[in-house]
Specification:
Helix content is 27%, strand content 30%. By secondary structure, the protein is an alpha/beta fold.
C-alpha cells in the first residue's frame, strides 16, 4: 500500500495574502519520494545569507525550520535517509531549497528546465544545486496522460509518476501525475496559483502570474490545458497547485 503525505514547506505573507508550498511525500515500503522540496533547513536558519534580502522582501517568505521537508518527514516518524528521489516541477527557489537536505537523493527535472537554470536566468539561485545532486533529466514525451503529452519518471518505487509539460511559468515547468492505489493525484505546480483561477479567467492573481511567467503565452496555454483536464476528469482526479492554502486544507480532510 502506497501512502501519500501532504506537507506545507513554505510560508508566504504578502500584500496579496497568504500562500503555502504544497509538497508531497510518497511512502512505499521503506522508500520515500519527495515532490518538490520547499525552503531548506539552512535557508530557514540563515535566510538572508542563503536567499538574499531582496528576494525575501519581494516574496514575503516567513521562515520556520519546522516547515522544512526534512523536519516534517522526521515528525511523521520517517527517516530522511530513505528519501531516494525528489521530483521537481521546476527550479524556482521556493521549490528546491530543501534539495540540499537530502544530498543522496536523485533529483528528477525536465531537461528544458535545467537548461534554463544553467543559462544564468536571474530567477534561479545557482547555489541551490551547488551540492551537485545526481540529476535525471527528461526531454522526451514518451507517454500520454488523459490526452496530454507525458514523460514517465524512472523511480526506484513501483508507483507510477509522470511529468506533464506545462511550460510558461518557467521554460521547463511541469505538472506531476501520480497513480497510487488505482487513483490519480495531479500536482499542477505553479500552472496556477489559486484554484479560483480555474473558474475565473480574470482573477486578480493573474497579474502576478503574468509578471512571473517566462513565456506568458505558453503559461496561458498550459493553464487552459489544466482547466480542460479538471473539467473533464476532475471527479476522478485529486488535483492541487503549489501555493493555494485552501487546497492544502482540503488535502488534510
Amino acid at each position: 500500500m502506497t501512502k501519500i503525505h501532504h506537507l506545507n514547506c513554505v510560508k508566504i505573507e504578502s500584500p496579496m495574502g497568504s500562500a503555502v508550498g504544497h509538497c508531497l511525500v510518497i511512502v512505499e515500503d521503506d522508500k520515500l519520494v519527495l515532490i518538490d522540496a520547499g525552503i531548506g533547513l539552512l535557508e530557514s536558519k540563515q535566510p538572508e545569507e542563503r536567499l538574499g534580502k531582496e528576494l525575501i522582501e519581494a516574496t514575503g517568505f516567513v521562515f520556520d525550520e519546522k516547515l522544512t521537508a526534512i523536519k516534517q518527514i522526521e515528525k511523521l516518524g520517517l527517516s530522511p535517509k530513505n528519501v531516494s528521489d525528489i521530483i521537481c516541477s521546476h527550479l524556482d527557489p521556493d521549490h528546491i531549497g530543501g534539495l540540499v537536505d537530502f544530498p543522496k537523493a536523485k533529483v528528477h527535472v525536465s531537461k528544458e528546465e535545467y537548461e534554463s537554470f544553467k543559462s544564468g536566468n536571474e530567477r534561479y539561485l545557482q547555489q541551490q544545486l551547488s551540492h551537485k545532486p545526481d540529476l535525471e533529466l527528461y526531454k522526451i514525451n514518451d507517454s500520454e496522460w488523459f490526452g496530454l503529452p507525458a514523460r514517465k519518471v524512472v523511480l526506484s518505487i513501483q508507483t507510477e509518476v509522470f511529468f506533464i509539460p506545462l511550460f510558461g511559468h518557467t521554460l521547463g515547468h511541469c505538472g506531476i501525475a501520480i497513480k497510487s492505489n488505482n487513483k490519480w493525484t495531479f500536482y499542477a505546480g505553479d500552472a496556477y496559483y489559486l484554484r479560483a483561477e480555474l473558474e475565473d479567467k480574470n482573477h486578480p492573481v493573474d497579474q502576478l502570474a503574468t509578471i512571473r511567467a517566462e513565456n506568458n503565452i505558453l503559461r496561458l496555454e498550459s493553464l487552459e490545458k489544466v482547466r480542460k483536464i479538471i473539467k473533464k476528469h476532475g471527479d476522478a482526479i485529486s488535483y492541487f497547485g503549489y501555493h493555494d492554502p485552501i487546497e492544502l486544507n482540503l488535502s488534510d480532510k
